Amino acid sequence: KQTYLTMETINRLKRVALETRALIAWMEKMPFVLGGNLQGGELVVTFPYDRTRSQGVTREQTPTPDEHVFRWLAFSYASTHRLMTDASRRVCHTEDFAKEDGTINGASWHTAAGSMNDFSYLHTNCFELSMYVGCDKFPHESELPEEWENNRESLLVFMEQVHRGIKGVVRDLQGRGISNATISVEGIGHDIRTAADGDYWRLLNPGEYRVTARAQGYSLVTKKCEVGYAIGATRCDFTIGRSNLFRIREIMEKYNKQPIRLPVRQFQAHRPRERRLGT
């Protein structure tokens, strides 16, 4: 089973609500790739980080290493929403997010500690955003059909984005999938890990990337993977073999971690004869 929880996180879980703990356990169990939580009271899509890096600062641009991917995901929802990017619509409160294409970095709007978006990005493979789908925090039941129409196309387009990037399987030389292997993309300081069968999905914008697969006890492998503009993740599989150090450890364990000694006679048999120097 994969795990991304640190002891600090586990200790915090003891102090959170049961439903929050259950949701985190569910996210740890399922290899989610893309997520969105729907909220009300505004018309905007926010993406992580949701907490500012500077203490005591309530608004500060705080991007993740996948800033460009998150901006695209947010725009894919906002641009297909019926109202978010409409410049002629009324402003919900005081800020006109339509000027920003209906998207904003969460921390630059207002800092929020312990959000689902930040947890998903930092502790799982999932890229999660928040969709504020209407000015009214609690719309009347009679308004729900219209709200559905406002968001229907956005939801469909957003879900399609799960097929953007690269995907594949990390296997050993015998063809078996390797779980918990690390997938790294050069230039992006955020790794993901393979699921139980060695399969992975990594959201990326179109472009050419150098991708590395590594796992404990195995040699790392790097290859070039290209992501196109059409919907459909690029297949990028890896086959990695045991590292030399791991093989040595296996042999040492086989001999109860004792140095491997060959019979002395073998060394003597191969020693060259010494020449006698005359005077």
Automatic annotation (TrEMBL):
<feature type="domain" description="Peptidase M14">
    <location>
        <begin position="1"/>
        <end position="162"/>
    </location>
</feature>
<dbReference type="InterPro" id="IPR000834">
    <property type="entry name" value="Peptidase_M14"/>
</dbReference>
<dbReference type="Pfam" id="PF13620">
    <property type="entry name" value="CarboxypepD_reg"/>
</dbReference>
<dbReference type="InterPro" id="IPR050753">
    <property type="entry name" value="Peptidase_M14_domain"/>
</dbReference>
<dbReference type="Pfam" id="PF00246">
    <property type="entry name" value="Peptidase_M14"/>
</dbReference>
<comment type="similarity">
    <text>Belongs to the peptidase M14 family.</text>
</comment>
<protein>
    <submittedName>
        <fullName>Inactive carboxypeptidase-like protein X2</fullName>
    </submittedName>
</protein>
